[in-house]
Amino acid sequence: MRRVLVAATVVAAIACAPKTPPATTTPVSPPPAPPSVPPPAPSQSLRLGPSALHYVMHQVIHIEQEFQGMRQPLDFGLHVFFAATITGPADSIGYPTTITIDSIIADSGTTVPMGINLAAAKALSFAGRLSATGAFRNPVPSDSAAAQSLAPVVGSFRNFFPRLPAAGVTLGATWTDTTTENDRAAGSVTVAAVNRSHAAAWEDRMGTRALRVEVASDFTIRGSGEQAGQPFEVAGSGLRSGIDYIAVDGRYMGGESRDSTSMTITLPMQSMTIPRTQVSRTTVAVLP
Fold first, then answer.
1. What gap in Å lies between CA 123 and CA 261, rounded to an integer?
2. Domain ranges of the chain
């Protein structure tokens, strides 16, 4: 879910922050990385492959915006519990892959954006293909109505897995890729990113030898839509830094990222422009 939660935060902007802002959720800093360990083979090329893992993803967003001359802070946090099953063999599109949500739990003090029922996430699944480059293609939801209602906060997991070269990745490799995502949950908002990656080191990740991949991205946001009966336009840009871990056997072992975004939300009917800065922190961990 390497995505900016544009839809959810636009809803929050239009609805305005609550009179009593929720308590800020401060993510716990991860422990320092363990010492590097030797790779199993210097020239080994890694690719994502078949696996069946349970994950928890925690995302915390802190927003500062100005609305009608008042500065409004807003904090939004969610834990998403889900399973990802990748089966082989791969076809010309990729590995058959299913992601099934177990539950979504809001952090204490979080105000869930209006119109979103987190309980509808129970057993919602997305079936598609995982490409050689890590793109989750053509995801089809088990319940289209539930998927649509939850799209502002979970999307469809298109960018959950790390992006890799089609031929695989080796220690020391560097590469650049571009991604473009159209977030229709917020109308027609496009997030275009340029991602620069480096396979930096072999490390121990939860008792498994894994390749540490460092990613730095810059992205732009632009589009328009309608929320709560009001048309809006949004434009902005941001930076992202992150780390992903890929096990020797092709399993995605999670990671973390931090986004920093500056944007403006324009409400034409009210002749109003809302400036906003947004910082988000995401961690993904494999569950036992």
1. 32
2. 6-20+46-287
